[in-house]
Design a protein that fits this description.
alpha/beta; 8-stranded parallel beta barrel; 18% strand; globular
């Protein structure tokens, strides 16, 4: 299966309000990531994405497939994703480790899979089908979770490690999600990261979170917090250079301001790389 070919550089999430300006100005961004489902309908959005792909590497990041759905993957969704992958030829394809369907009911959220008996079999079956359909390796992302389940039999790191072993998938490590979980659930993000098969980490995400009363929400609606920058540096010191993506979905700033955030992140990542080279 094909593997990820993202540049070892900082990329940026491309959202529809910025699409026309990006095509008109072609800013110096190493690579862009888009949400796959936004381009399933074809038409003008897909035509614009083709134009972006002519000038930049593109990563397809799925938010609606539901790899943890016990009923299996939705045929239509999988067909649309396969068509998009074939026509865009992205540098990477990623999905979340979550579920979003029960019977005929669909939920517009990334719901955490309960790490109980049988979940590995469900995820393995769905990931195998996805990778065989796309004929390429898919990266799995850890999510922010706002509930915990009783009597779980494994940690998230153990779940992801076993999925890598069983399916040959890669990992998309979202360090902001881990830090949000640390604040909400008193987990140790560094301990979780240290338990992962770091050689399988082929992409890293960072974003900003917001606090609502006593709950920390992964809104992608604020600049990156200092603690997340610190966790990113700690992680990169252990993984070595990786493609790093800045996500921003809410309170979307003007493109020049977002590009400045991306430059700040890039400078941080490059500084970590230089320190590693000196060491």
């Amino acid at each position: 299966m094909r593997t990820t070919t993202l540049p070892l550089a900082t990329g940026l999430g491309l959202r529809s309000p910025h699409l026309a300006e990006v095509l008109a100005t072609k800013p110096p961004v190493a690579w862009w990531e888009v949400h796959s489902e936004n381009y399933f309908g074809g038409g003008a959005p897909l035509a614009a994405l083709h134009k972006v792909r002519e000038h930049y590497p593109v990563s397809l990041h799925g938010v609606g497939l539901g790899l943890g759905n016990p009923e299996g993957l939705d045929d239509r969704h999988l067909d649309q994703l396969a068509f998009l992958v074939e026509t865009i030829q992205p540098a990477a394809v990623s999905e979340h480790v979550c579920w979003n369907r029960h019977g005929s009911h669909w939920y517009n959220d990334l719901l955490p899979v309960p790490r109980h008996a049988g979940v590995l079999d469900v995820l393995t079956r769905n990931i195998d089908r996805l990778q065989q359909r796309l004929n390429r390796k898919v990266l799995l992302e850890n999510i922010s979770a706002y509930v915990q389940f009783r009597d779980e039999i494994m940690t998230e790191a153990e779940l992801l490690t076993e999925l890598v072993k069983r399916t040959g998938c890669g990992l998309l490590l979202d360090v902001n999600n881990l830090y949000v979980n640390q604040l909400n659930h008193r987990l140790d993000a560094r301990d979780e990261i240290s338990r992962l098969p770091l050689a399988a980490v082929e992409e890293i995400h960072v974003a900003g979170f917001e606090v609502f009363e006593s709950l920390v929400i992964d809104t992608h609606g604020a600049p990156i917090h200092a603690e997340v920058y610190e966790l990113l540096a700690w992680t990169l010191a252990r993984t070595g250079p990786r493609p790093v993506l800045l996500e921003r979905d809410t309170h979307l700033p003007a493109l020049p301001d977002l590009l400045q955030e991306c430059r700040t992140l890039s400078a941080h990542v490059n500084a970590v790389a230089r320190e590693g080279a000196v060491a």
